Amino acid sequence: MIMETLTVKQKQYLEQPKERISGSEAVVRCLLAEGVDVLYGYPGGAIMPVYDELYKYQDKIHHVLTRHEQGATHSAQGYARISGKVGVAMATSGPGATNLITGIADAQIDSTPIVCITGQVASHLLGSDAFQETDIVGISTPVTKWNHQVTKASEIPEVIAKAFYIAKSGRPGPVLIDITKDAQFEEFDFQYKKCTGVRSYIPVPKTDESSLKAAAELINNAKKPMIVWGQGIILSKAEEELKTVMEKAGIPSAWTIMGASAIPTSHLLNIGMVGMHGNYAPNVLTNECDVLIAIGMRFDDRVTGKLDEYATQAKVIHFEIDPAEIDKNVKTDVAVLGDAKATLTKLLPLLKSNSHSDWLQKFKNLYAIEFEKVIKNDLHPTKEGLTMGEVLNEINYQSKGEAAIVSDVGQHQMIACRYAEFNVSKSNITSGGLGTMGFALPAAIGAKMAAPEREVVAIIGDGGYQMTIQELGTIFQTKVPVKIVVLNNEFLGMVRQWQQLFFDKRYASTEMTNPDFVAIAKGYYVDAKRVTKREELGSAIEEMMKSEDAYFLEVCVEKEDNVFPMVPSGASVSDIRLE
Amino acid sequence: MEKEINQYTVSVYTENNIGLLNRISAIFQRRHINIESINSSASEIVGVTRWTILVNMTEVNIKKIIGQIEKQVEVIKAYYHTDEETIYQESCLFKVKSDLLFEERQIQNIIKESNARIVTVNKEFFVLEKSGRRNEIELLHRELSAFGIMQFVRSGRIAVTKDEMKITEMLAAFNN
């Protein structure tokens, strides 16, 4: 009776041969079915049955033991960010699960597709304050795209399929699946079917053709158009489409920190980074353009500065996949919903060929001012102390712009994002929205493992490095040849900079008395070197780049350098300071 | 105009899943918005839950909130409406000593005039049910207070909209 009402596909599915396996084996089989070849995690009581299966399947799936669960999430993020695939992290219940939260929150705000699987106490113990019980579904709710608790083995295939589908579709994000220990032990008839849709979820909204026409008309009539693209370009794999649009319409184009590397640094229409420590020209001219075309970005406060004085003269067009971002921070004149690759493809034929050479010249003129006042001194300093900028300059030179740069959070991050040269997309891996210190070292592990053919250089400050320094153990044990550069100014540099500028140099708890970083790296059997003089820098970086194994380089830089330009907190983008 | 705070009824159609209350209430909590009342019930569609949430805020912000609610994977659709755009009611129960019903003539008049309904009567107490607008319920509460109320409870607002919701069409579109 029931069979008659089913579709052909459903019938085929039901008629598939079933196997009787445990929930924990099903977890591993589901991961394999989703194409997972590596996952990052840390075992513990409530997830042990799954680890037992990972042991049996170790020739097919590589589990990397991180030294802390936070490291597992950041590694999964690094893996996802460089490859565009879903990263996977695993942890036990209680403290294992809560340690994932920082990475999950980071993935949520930076739209990174990761799936986290946590063990949970047996279902009959739920709510009894059992050993290592914590309400991880409750805790992770505000920082996940979706989460779910599984208490029956039979739910596992469908829930994991849904987890991967939700994590990577539409605007990506983190998903957490919590599986009780009894569900891991329970046997059931296993079948796996990939998820192709969830009825309450529209990953990509429909594009209104009239919005595309309206956008094209604004762009075609603009005298001073400016594009600001974000990570949406990278997530949608729309780099070529963006480049074609930029070139056809002759539009100077800037990027947010998350959009970095989508278009090569050397491209003539690439006018640099917007935001608090972005480039001078795109910040100043945001308040002079007549049409602002935002693509796959979300007008973060670090991008806009004072909202009331942000591009008020401009018509704003917003290409965006997430309808909740429209008018959230900046009121748009035309919203083009949809996936950037598709909408830019449709936009292209509607655009007239153009070149805005006088307008582009304005950006070049302001760049010349920034170069004279800031960039020259950062990249080619004449003072004695080493600058963070010259380290980046040397890395650019030796990597020929081919390296993926994984940065942590703070001054070195701003310097890395400002000065790193990128020829290839997905090369700038950093914690943008959440600003998670400790992100870079574990993220670099994931990035290098997902793209072993690429040079992966982690640029980290002395503060953030010590937040996840234990991942050196993962690097050593797993033999991940990442290059680690710590720019050591013996300060929490960005906070110190703010204290200098806005708190009358009261350096409250920002000075760091650091350990011997080289000795620590060597303790983990990682080759290491310390550089304190300019003449040593080139050869040290050369040695690092040539190394086939992991390598640690500490560069002792000027203690009290500041990052400029800077849009002071609460100021308008056009009030950006050069000194 | 944009900064004017109004009362809005938020209607949310969702899957009937554990944890959604948390997910939806967190959207308000994170923005420091107090939920005046919240009601979860079945809807006109089998298996679909309908939430009715009453909040006071600006229209600019309620639009953003609706966007954030709709963004949740298990939310099918969310709407906001002003009082004028909905037909809305609240319901309440009063537990009152039974002697009063027989000894105080005025109570009988109050019940009659307020269109309240006696749900049950026994030796100790009787229970009065009243559905209506908030002011009607508050009036009845004030009138009965003079005699003493043993227990009082009022439900959250429930509301249907004058406009169509078209949820069934949306779900049908997914199945095809």
- Enter the CATH topology name of the largest domain in chain B: Alpha-Beta Plaits
Structural class per helix/strand content of chain B?
alpha+beta
Q: Report the top-level CATH class of the largest domain in chain B.
A: Alpha Beta
The chain pair with the largest interface is: A-B, 22 and 21 residues
Q: How does the major sheet of chain A shape up?
A: 6 strands, parallel
Indicate the multimeric state.
heterodimer
How would you describe this structure to a colleague?
The complex is a heterodimer of chains A (579) and B (176). Chain A is 38% helix and 17% strand. The mean pLDDT of chain A is 97. Chain A is an alpha/beta fold and 579 residues long. Chain A is globular. In chain A, strands 3-2-4-5-7-6 form a 6-stranded parallel β-sheet, sandwiched between helices. In chain A, strands 11-10-9-12-13-14 form a 6-stranded parallel β-sheet, sandwiched between helices. Chain A has 3 domains: 19-190, Thiamin diphosphate (ThDP)-binding fold, Pyr/PP domains (Rossmann fold); 209-362, TPP-binding domain (Rossmann fold), CATH 3.40.50; 380-569, Rossmann fold. Chain A starts with 7 loop residues before the first helix and ends in a 23-residue tail after the last strand. Chain A is built from 24 helices and 20 strands. Chain B is α+β, with helices and mostly antiparallel strands and 176 residues long. Chain B folds into 2 domains: 5-86, 2-Layer Sandwich (Alpha-Beta Plaits), CATH 3.30.70; 89-154, 2-Layer Sandwich (Alpha-Beta Plaits), CATH 3.30.70. Chain B has helices at 20-30, 59-71, 98-103, 105-114, 134-145, 167-175, and strands spanning 5-15, 35-42, 48-58, 75-81, 86-97, 117-121, 125-132, 151-154, 158-161. In chain B, strands 5, 6, 7, 8 and 9 form a 5-stranded antiparallel β-sheet that branches. The longest helix of chain B is centred in the middle third of the chain and has 13 residues, at 59-71. Chain B is elongated and about 65 Å long. The model of chain B has no long low-confidence stretch (mean pLDDT 94). Chain A binds chain B through residues 137-138, 141-142, 145-149, 166, 197-201, 322-328, and chain B through 14-15, 18-19, 22-23, 26, 30, 63-64, 67-68, 70-71, 73-76, 171, 174-175.
